[in-house]
Amino acid sequence: MRNKEFLKKFFIPIPSWKLGIGGLALFFISLINANAQRTVVAIGDSNGANEYGWVNQLKSIREGDSIFNYSVSGNTIGFDNNGNEKLNALKNVTALLEDAANKSVTGNIDDVVILLGTNDCKKVFTNSSDQVVLNLEKLIQIIRNQKVIINSESEIYIVSPPPFGEDSILLEKYKQGDQRIRKLLPQFMKVALNYNCHFIDIYHELKPQFYKLSKDGVHLNPEGSMIIAKAVSRFLDNNNNNKTLWDDEAVNPWPDNFTEVEIKSPLDGVMGKAFFYSAKSDKPQPLIISLHTWSGDYTQQDPLISQIVERDWNYIHPDFRGPNWTPQACGSKYAIDDIDQAINYALKNCNADMQNIHVIGVSGGGMATLLSYMNSKYNIASFSAWVPISDLQAWYYQSLGRKNNYAGHILAATESIDSLLNEEEARNRSALFMTTPIDKRKDSPLKIFAGIHDGYEGSVPVSQSLNFYNKVIKDHGATDDQLISQKEILDLVSMRTYPILPDKMIGDRQIVYERNFKNISLILFEGRHEMLTDVALELLEID
Q1: Who contacts 34 (Cβ-Cβ below 8 Å, separation ≥6)?
Q2: Virtual CA dihedral for 145, 146, 151, 152, nearest 10 degrees?
Q3: pTM value?
Q4: Which of 167, 364, 421, 458 is most buried, most CB within 10 Å of its CB?
Q5: What is the mean pLDDT of residues 163-172?
Q6: pLDDT at residue 529 above 60?
């Protein structure tokens, strides 16, 4: 839609003989550059309205974007602050979005960044904290409903309010404000996740040094404003220009020969869904259980499906409680059992070769593959985990350091309180800390694949694969000298190569490092956070 509106406004027919070849080239280059510019709407309070505030700082570091600042001193999410409805974002957001769209080159809005809540935490609103959360939900809903200017590609970013200073330096109206903000932080995060928004926690980034970032305990100095601007800019880059590979949240239509089915959970009666393909052959065919990524669900497009149809193999793509940011998902007993229930459904509804049941997944689906390896009651012919997460506790801190959304997801899934990770619950949901079913898996190959540059050019460090390989082979009887040494792990993570490169390939990629023990294998290839779809099914070794 953006391209159409842009062309309507700016693509005026000009005879080619007036422009010449060079002129045409320059015209189309300018057309492309203008269309590439992003329109960002910032909604904030005094910390965004100041001359040196975070929005103007953001403009200074993102000169290529068109950033419209609708920050107003005293602004709230949904109260008539001081009796002034102009300080109520709920009452003004529609008009300001329309204003930004009219001024935008494309007529659309790409990103909406909201940093509000400081004034909602004033003493006068002490007993209205529940209303603050409801107001945030309403604000997001209003923004989402601006169909003409906000579409499926638009992103909403909820930035946490900054801290307050010590009560001793605060004006009376702000006293105990920091306690109120801390109470709201986890609720803001959950609202953001529930409405598929990005949550940017700047509170904890600012808190340790807040004493030197604000004289009055409320208003940030230029240094503090720049910290916020850089945090917002990082998220804009990560989510708009460099979206994490293999974690697509888009909902796309599936081919007609894949059937949407419902599967009831025996644990809580929830009706899970899946896309299912039954092979047309009269002979028993392999069954492939393909698992969606971290932020996806059963509707997420699977690049393997064209090969499934071509090979005429049975296939199921289950939901297992959807994106990994709720307690029912993310390695819970419900999510793990949902995968088994999907296998059960497929076996009852297709002509499956019982010797060829294979589980495969990438990224969050790789994590689910490892969880299935540790927990499934079925005799699975093989498990293929690509760039998997094996340790949620470690990945939380790894994600926190990378300042991406996954840290917040883990907090929500583990029902952590006050933004402090519930480490015990994170370990309970991690394959690395589960008991390996040695007898059950003695005839089930486990194959772990990871791009050597993942963690640098991707979200999951290769240590997640290396440590799990060590855990499983040790459980299967490996001696200490057969484990990958800690020095090797450190070298592989830090150098992203290995001194002795084997002359071996996986598909069209060089293998950087390979280890095998019994029927367990690990391959690190020249690549990033990805599955090599051209060879993934071939590597299942189906007879």
Answers
A1: 6, 10, 105
A2: -20
A3: 0.68
A4: 364
A5: 95
A6: yes
